[in-house]
Fold this sequence. Notes:
Layout: E1 3-4, H1 7-10, E2 17-22, H2 26-30, H3 32-38, E3 49-53, H4 59-65, E4 71-77, E5 80-86, E6 89-93, H5 98-105, E7 112-115, H6 135-146, H7 154-168, E8 173-177, H8 184-199, H9 201-210, E9 211-213, E10 215-219, H10 229-237, E11 239-240, E12 245-247, E13 252-256, E14 272-273, H11 278-301, H12 307-311, H13 314-328, H14 338-349, H15 358-361, H16 365-372, H17 374-382, H18 388-401, H19 412-419, H20 424-432, H21 434-437, H22 440-451
Parallel strand pairs: 1-11, 2-3, 2-7, 3-6, 4-12, 7-8, 8-9, 13-14
Antiparallel strand pairs: 4-5, 10-13
Helix pairs in contact: 5-7, 7-8, 8-9, 11-13, 11-16, 11-18, 13-18, 18-22, 19-20
Amino acid sequence: MSTPLNRAALGLPIPPVRLVHLGLGAFFRAHQAWYTQHAETDPADPQWGYAAFTGRSPVMAELLAAQDGLYTLVERAGDGDRHEVIGAIAEARAAEDVDRLRELLAAPGTAAVTITVTEAAYHLGAGLAFDPSVPAVAAELERLRTGAGAPATMAGRLVAGLDARRRAGAGPIAVVPCDNLPANGTAARHAVQGLAAAVDPRLGRWVEEHVSFVSTSIDRITPRAEDELAETVARETGRTDRAPVVTEPFSSWVLSGEFPAGRPAWERAGAVFVDDIEPFENRKLWLLNGAHSLLAYAGQLRGHSTVAEALADPDCRDAVEAFWDEACAHLTAPGLALLDYREALLERFANPRIAHHLAQIAVDGSVKLPMRAVPVLTAERAAGRDGRAAARMIAAWVAFLDGRTQVQDTAAEQILAADAGPDRVRALLGLLDRELAGQDDVVDLITRLAAGLAPTTR
Length: 458
């Protein structure tokens, strides 16, 4: 007989809310919340708690609220599981609760906002620039200017909260995006400050002067929890948990930027603070995320469903190693320890007990590949090489899309139209990078590579 998760039974105090999070998903609960709990000097007297807001669905807020914000983090290694109750979430809220978000950001004690949404949820234009003509941004501008309806985007909700902070005179604050975007601090600045300035130039100036945008590189494989995870946790721990999270033992967090209102001592949990984050971003985006995207498309074409299965396929592993060789030629900064990093990735990917589903990774390829494949292909061509391994990643995406009538992507309509057109490879490549799409030899290379990746299953 298992017992419900609650703070009174476990003797876990509610930490004071000093952090806000947007995007209450599994990765946040395996990463930022875990780091925050492990940053405490005295676990019995925590000083940093999160108020976390959901993304699209309020379900997780409801589940966590019913168990005092607590959940079980299952660290799944090859030789067994380790269970830990995480108590860093003091409040779990639905995204639509913008009034509570305003209250929290207007409080002087709130020091930082972290973000885990998706790359697409920033709604930026070309070059990660603020673009008021993007439909979601234009609609958000209308809502914020007129007050006709609550803000519906991450940037819109954050702008509403920052406006409340400005009016309250609550002082500076840090915004810490934790999404797989290059220069994600800059991307967040463009999305939030651009929107703020478009709504009210005075608010835009306040954001510029009082809000620090911290760039980060984050890493912890956190697959979708299997249906039986809750039953396994109950059996292993004796506690009922309707919102457990499964993750790998490895974790990494690299940050660069200022925290004008203070922060948890995340370095106590292993976080690293650096002056120049770009080399660490590229290492992670190209080697880990790039390999994931390559495996997601090439692996599914060969009938595999998880990262571990795909990596065990010699053809898929050879493709990953070849891509890594190309990418590493352009990762030259000191301190990256590339050989060690690659060996660690192979071990992590091969973990047979982490079911990281390729279908999950394959979502939003039109957003991910411009950051994971295009920079390496472009750099290889600039060095006088054809970039075949990076081109193979794009070719796998092209082959994966061939003939599909549905696709999970923020640009799904454009993808389906391009896929059905007469010059489909060039059209699809144009969604990733217009300059590459204009180069006939690149289109020809991707066309030939895609032709050799015929699917073995749908």
